[in-house]
Write a structure and sequence with these properties.
- This protein is mostly helical.
- It contains 19 helices and 4 strands.
- Helix 3 runs antiparallel to helix 10, helix 5 packs across helix 6 and helix 11 packs parallel to helix 14.
């Protein structure tokens, strides 16, 4: 069981997600499932009284955890321990609790409900981060900066356009999680091997009533049943959900890693509070600890992806029990860690700091190299051989780069090119300006926000305007 000693709960995840995966929520959900089953069986004519149902309804949340733990030690069976514990406070209903069901009736149906609610929390957090990145992108839509390919300076982009790249990864993740929420189903009433034999016995061979029982039950809990199962719902579903969480973790990791590099270049950084300490030894440090924590937690989520994959592959025939302990660990921890990642991500995007002067200085130092592509094309338009010009530019660039690296001097490439006869007649009197080399970056930001982010804002308007007071950063 997860307790508040777990660092994911004590340090990282929100109260909402922590309570969702708490023992209280888990076992009170079991009791609600037993109630829904009994109500459905009663509606179809089984001898279950209103008095018994009222008794079950009166004790949905008052769980005696000490008694349940004692019985589990005695019985070596968690479900039967809680059947007994529920029966102790519902003596009249005790004979009909869990009637016709197997253990996975409560464990799997409860997990499906918790998974759906967890996915919705993550989905909403994703929408919020996308919205914040959109605001940031709009603010810096036309702020030129260096691009990097192979982590080497490349043709300029804008700060806003780079933010759109981060956002687009999350948009793709949002599409996936929305699909998984729609597709998520539950076990329903399937019995010990999925054949519904126990329920068929209860209803004396009436197949229609057995089918109706599952319809009634699933309607009460708000999820449709899988078309066919063994004893459990298909473990493929867990694998698909962890794939989505891993995808969000990958996107978050990339953002945080990029921001850490930009902080190293002193171009951008995450929020740094007035009293915040960057290092216990080096008082001057402004370590990007939130971005580092995102990377740490996201790496953990990505590592969890393999467990459901192996579980789904190794479910022999109708079911094995080697999935149980693994799922108890993986499912809650994946959602708790992902919740923490997105809280951090949103916090950073709401307060990212941009140092325009440093960005401009770094860009101007490399801009002569970036401008050579335009010079090459203009020289060719004037009749020069493209390959010859390319070689001239290459040699001048290498020489200028050597001066910068070996002698620590300013980049003099522009002066070298200006004095080369091949560029005679081309106006090179003015140094290149950053805005001349960013292409359609500002327009692409506008288009991306209109086509990708604004529809999400409309779809999640209620989520984006809600407040979540508790945020751990």
């Amino acid at each position: 069981m997860l307790t508040y000693d777990n660092p994911l709960i004590a340090r990282y995840a929100s109260r909402k997600m922590s309570e969702l995966w708490s023992p209280q929520r888990k076992f009170s959900t079991w009791r609600r499932l037993w109630l829904a089953l009994a109500e459905s069986e009663a509606e179809l004519g089984l001898p279950i009284t209103d008095e018994q149902l009222d008794e079950l309804r009166s004790h949905l949340d008052d769980i005696d955890f000490e008694l349940a733990a004692e019985k589990e030690l005695e019985l070596r069976h968690d479900v039967m321990a809680h059947v007994y514990t529920y029966g102790e406070v519902c003596p009249k209903a005790k004979p009909i609790i869990h009637l016709g069901a197997t253990s996975c009736f409560v464990t799997d149906n409860a997990d499906a409900l918790l998974l759906r609610e967890s996915l919705v929390i993550i989905r909403n957090r994703l929408a919020a981060v996308i919205d914040r990145l959109g605001k940031f992108a709009w603010k810096y839509r036309d702020c030129p900066c260096l691009s990097f390919t192979h982590l080497q300076p490349a043709q300029p982009t804008t700060v806003g356009r780079r933010a759109c790249l981060w956002a687009y990864d999350l948009v793709l993740d949002l599409n996936e999680i929305e699909y998984r929420i729609v597709q998520l189903k539950t076990l329903g009433n399937k019995g010990t091997t999925g054949t519904q034999a126990s329920f068929l016995k209860l209803f004396h061979g009436d197949h229609e009533k057995v089918k109706k029982l599952e319809t009634l039950f699933c309607r009460k809990i708000g999820l449709e049943p899988f078309a066919l199962t063994g004893q459990t719902y298909p473990r493929k579903a867990d694998s698909q959900i962890l794939d989505v969480l891993s995808g969000i973790a990958q996107s978050s990791y990339k953002f945080a890693a990029d921001l850490r590099i930009l902080a190293h270049r002193k171009e951008m950084e995450e929020p740094f509070e007035t009293q915040q300490i960057g290092s216990s030894a080096m008082a001057y440090k402004r370590n990007p600890m939130r971005s580092e924590r995102i990377c740490s937690l996201a790496r953990f989520v990505m590592s969890l992806q393999t467990s459901p994959v192996m579980t789904a592959a190794s479910q022999w025939f109708e079911r094995t029990l080697d999935d149980s302990a693994n799922r108890r660990l993986v499912l809650p921890q994946a959602f708790l860690a992902m919740d923490a990642v997105l809280i951090l991500y949103q916090n950073i995007t709401e307060g990212m700091v941009v140092y325009r002067k440093v960005i401009e200085k770094n860009l101007r130092a490399e801009l002569p190299f970036m401008a050579t592509e335009n010079l090459l094309m203009e020289a060719v338009e004037r009749g020069a051989d493209r390959q010859d010009v390319h070689e001239i530019i290459r040699k001048h660039s290498q020489d200028a780069g050597a001066v910068v690296k070996n002698e620590g001097k300013e980049n003099d490439l522009w002066e070298r090119l200006r004095n080369d006869p091949v560029f005679a007649g081309i106006d090179m009197t003015k140094e290149p300006e950053p805005a001349e080399f960013i292409g359609r970056s500002p327009e692409q930001v506008d288009e991306f926000i209109a086509e990708q982010i604004d529809p999400i804002r409309r779809r999640y308007y209620g989520v984006l305007t809600a407040t979540d007071a508790e945020v751990k950063v």
